[in-house]
Amino acid sequence: MAGIFKKFRDLGLASIHSLLDKAIDLNSVAVVKQHVRDLENALSELENGAAEAAGYVRTLNREAIELSERAKRLDQTIDVILSDNDPTNDHLATAKQVELNGINERIAETAQELVDSKTTASKLDEAVSSLRSKHVAMVRQVQKLESMERGNRAKKDAAKAIGRVREMVQAGEDVSVDSVISRMKRDGDVADERFDRAMGAMNEATGKDASIAEAQAQLAERRKRLQSTTQSAS
Length: 234
Hints:
Helices cover 92% and strands 0% of the residues. The chain is mainly α. Helix 1 (2-21) runs antiparallel to helix 2 (29-82), helix 1 runs parallel beside helix 3 (90-173) and helix 2 (29-82) packs antiparallel against helix 3 (90-173). The model has no long low-confidence stretch (mean pLDDT 79).
């Protein structure tokens, strides 16, 4: 377990500081997004490492307490053996003392290991806090860059639309409204002339029919007069 924490201390923390100090090209959204993913992966690993470190500190504390209690019991046992006024069993104290010496050594080692483990756990907690802050800041950078990217894309689309409108306007400039009006007036004049001619022809035709009818009526009247004159002479 101590080897794991040494790895975090010597390699993991160095990698974390490298990520924190890494210069990011904020002109590239893809690069920033990849860095955020790297931070997320590192943060997840670091949080796991910090949890293991904190758990190991708790384990060492429990072991230190248990070793201290064992040492206390052994010390009491040795005192009992040596104070029972029976030298025949003093040899039992030797084995107990050897065991006590081993436990005391283990207590000293555990105490030092506990100090180192607490230091490592503290550094991991600090690194988690720094990395989480860095991650939050980079997420904001990504959001800002994405917003700028959307704005730039909207401007480009607007520019294209304006370009298309300009092309339509330029194409419309080739069409003369005045010439269209003049042509329509000429067409109107021709239509009016044709209409007037058609009406004249119709009136002329109608007029001829009226003259014939009038002449025929006059001839009929004349016949009646002649017949009356003839009858009177008879």
